[in-house]
Amino acid sequence: MAFDPFSAVFDIANTVIKRVWPNPEDQAKAQMELAKLQQEGDFKELDAQIQVLMGQIETNKIEAEHGGLFKGGWRPAVGWVCAAAMAYTFILNPLIVSAVQITAHFTGAKLFPLEFLPDLGWQDLSPVLIGMLGLGGLRTFEKRQSRLQKRHEN
Predict the structure, then answer these.
(1) How confident is the model at residue 1 (pLDDT cuts 50, 70, 90)?
(2) In the chain, what are the domain boundaries?
(3) Structure pTM?
């Protein structure tokens, strides 16, 4: 049994066809018409999905044309936040901890608990940054491939 309403309706219609037309030839004709209707519906649904995707592509193009300080939009902001968290987690935090420990060692000062240094949640942010880098790399690859194709066509 299908889970989406359209397929469920067509399954029920198939059952009705089998009961209404006992002749196999008539059943085949009716099922063929039903299949055509289902296919037309699938194409309409696919076309609607394509239109939504095309709208998103247009939005992305407009967003990418913005020439602000960080190239505008929310995507670069997410990238900058991830980059800042990465810089803090892997560069600044170890330097701060080392500097405090070295200073405390040579001055004999009492160390404050280093666990109180802020944790920016790098484990949560790393998949976001890696995903963005992967998509950016894929886009660069696609651009390069399209340029190569244009060169070979000319």
Answers:
(1) very low
(2) 1-65, 71-154
(3) 0.40
